[in-house]
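Our collaborator T.R. sent over the components below with a one-line note: 'Predict the complex.' Nothing else. No constraints on interfaces, no templates requested, no preferences about which chain binds where. So this is a plain run: every listed entity goes in together, and whatever single assembly comes back becomes the starting point for the next discussion.
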Amino acid sequence: MSQQSADAAQPEAGLENLLHETRTFPPSPEFAAQANATAEMYDVAAADKEAFWADQARELLTWSKDFTEVLDFSGAPVARWFADGKLNAAYNAVDRHVEAGHGDRVAIHFEGEPGDTRTLTYADLKEQVSRAANALTELGVRTGDRVAVYLPMIPEAVITMLACARIGAPHSVVFGGFSAEALHSRIIDADAKVVVTADGGYRRGKPSSLKPAVDDALDKGTDVRHVLVVERTGQDVAWREGRDVRWADALESASPEHTPVEVEAEHPLYILYTSGTTGRPKGIMHTTGGYLTQCAFTHRHVFDLKPETDVYWCTADVGWVTGHSYVTYGPLVNGATQVLYEGTPDTPDKDRWWDIVEKYKVSILYTAPTGIRTCMKWGAEYPGRHDLSSLRVLGSVGEPINPEAWIWYRDTIGGGKTPVVDTWWQTETGAIMISPLPGVTAAKPGSAQTPLPGISVDVLNEAGESVPDGSGGYLVLTEPWPSMLRGIWGDPQRFYDTYWSRFEGKYFAGDGAKKDEEGDIWLLGRVDDVMNISGHRLSTTEIESALVSHPVVAEAAVVGAKDATTGQAVVAFVILRSDVVEAGEDTGEASKIIADLRNHVASEIGPIAKPRSILVVAELPKTRSGKIMRRLLKDIAEGREAGDVTTLADSSVMDQISKGMKGSS
Ligand code: WTA
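Returned assembly:
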C-alpha cells in the first residue's frame, strides 16, 4: 500500500512513498500507430481551448441546431457551453446510430447475475427507449420534470435514463444500495414526480428487494404520483393501485415511435447526489451539450475506443457518476458495444468477471482499484482459468491506485501488454479530467499524470500559489471545462462556498495532489471530511448524523481509516448516553449495542456506510473551541500513536481512547 496511506488531512504525508515509484511503461509502437489519441492534441488544445472543444462538440455530437458561441463564463462560477445550440441526448446516444446504418450493432450485452442474458442492438434500444419515453409521458412526465430512478444494473436502468433524456426530464438516479431514508431525502430535494424501480435485483446469488424501499420512502410523504415497476426477480411486492404501474404493461401499450424533444445545450440532463463535507447530500447538476461532448471525447480517446470492433465493459453501477458517464452516455454516444453485468464479481465463483471477459471478448475494461485489489487477494488462479487475450486497454477510477495493484492489473489481467489508464475525475467534473492517453503517454504506475487536452489543472499551496515540480498541495482546476457541474440543485450559495471560495476563481476539488519532478500529477486522497470507501464517496458528517439519530448515542465521530482492500473503511467512535451506560454496565450489552448501531447506519444511509468498527468511548478529543479532532482519531484507527495533542482541551482523552482501543482489539 502506498498512496492509500496518504493522510487525508495532510497532502504532504503521502509523498514519501510515492517518490519511490520510478517505473515507466512507454506505449508499444504497434499500439501508438493505431491509437485515436495523438501527442499533437495537447498542442492543438493549448493553442485555442475553446476552438478545440467546439471542434469536439461538432465532431462527436449531432446538433439539431448548431451553436455560434462556445463558452460563456460571465456568470462565473456557472459556465455555459455551446449555449445557443440545440440537441437531444437520447437521439445522440441511439437514433443517429440507427440512421447511420448501425441498427444491428449490439449496444448492450446484458449478463444477469444468475446467468440469464439479453442482447440489445441499437435498433432494439431505440424501440425500448421510445416506448419508455411514451410511457413516462403517459404518466404525466413533462420536459423539465424530475424522475427518480432506483434500479439494479439491468438494461432498463439505461433505457430509463435515455427515455428521460429523450423528453428532457432530468433523471435523478439513486444507487440501489441506498436506504429508503436516503431515497426519500433525494426524492424530496429534487421534487421528483415519478419513480422508476424494480421488484428487486440479483446480488450474491439471491434476489434482493428494491420496491419495499420505494414504498417506505413514499410513505414518508412526497409528491410522487406514479411508480413504474420493472419485474426482474418476480418477488412478491406490495401494490398501490392507481400509483404503481407495471413496466411491461406500460411499455407494451406505448407506441414504439417517439420524437426526441430538442433541448438547449444548457438544459439539465440529470441530478446526481453525492456526499459532501456536511450531512446533507448535494444534488450535482449536469446539463446536456458540454457534458456529452466531454463524455464522448474522453471515452473515445482515453480508452482508444474503436466502436466497430471493441467490446467495452465498465463495472460501475449506474447509481454512481461512472455509470452515468461511462455506461450510459459516453459509450452509447460513441456507438460502442458494451457489456452490462448485474451482479458481484464472486458469484457463483471468484472468476465471474474473467468469465465475462472471455465470453464477450471484452477488449476495454474499466473498473475501480478496490475491485482490482480484491481480485489480487483472491489470487491469479481465477483470471488464470480464462483466456483474457481480447483485452487491449485497462482503466482505473474512483481512488488512487497503488503501484502494486497497477502492475498486477497490467501483468495478470492485461498479459503484461495493455496500457493502463488511471483516470481522475469526480461527480462534479462529469467526465475524466486527468489521465494518461494510451498510445501517447509513458505510463507511471500510481499516477494519473496529465490533464487531458483542453483541461487546465494546478496544484496550489495553502497560500494559493502554484507549487513547483516535486512538491505537493491542493488540486485545483483553473479553467472551466465542458462537462463541469452547473451547480448544486436548489443551492447556488453552497455551490460557490464548496468549490470556489477556498481559492478565488479556481475550482477546488477537495483532493491533495503532488507534482513529480516531471510535472506529472499523483493524487493523494481527500483533504476534507469526505471518505472514499471502495471508490464510493461517503461523508463523515453524514454517518455521524446517522449515529447520533439513534437513541443510545450522545455523540459520534467518524473517520476513514486505511484499508488494504477498500482503500478506506469507516471507523466510528461513539459516546453513549449516560442513562444507557449506567443501565448497561457489566451486563454485556456493548456488543449488542454496536451491532444495533451498525444496522442503524445501514438503514439510515445504506449498507455501504456501515462502520467496519465502532468503539464506545467516554470522551472525544476536542479543541478548546469544541471541534472534534478527527485527525487524532484517524491515528488511533490506523494503529499509530496519536499525533500532536497540544491543542486538545483535555490531553488525557487520547490516552483513554487508545487504552480503550487496545482493550477492544
Ligand atoms: C477520488 C468518481 C485518485 C478523488 C469518478 C475524487 C481518485 C473522488 C481517482 C471523486 C483517481 C477518483 N485517483 N483518486 N484516479 N478517481 N478519485 O465523485 O478523491 O464518486 O475527489 O467520482 O474520488 O469521487 P466521485
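Summary for T.R.: DSSP finds 22 helices and 30 strands in the chain.
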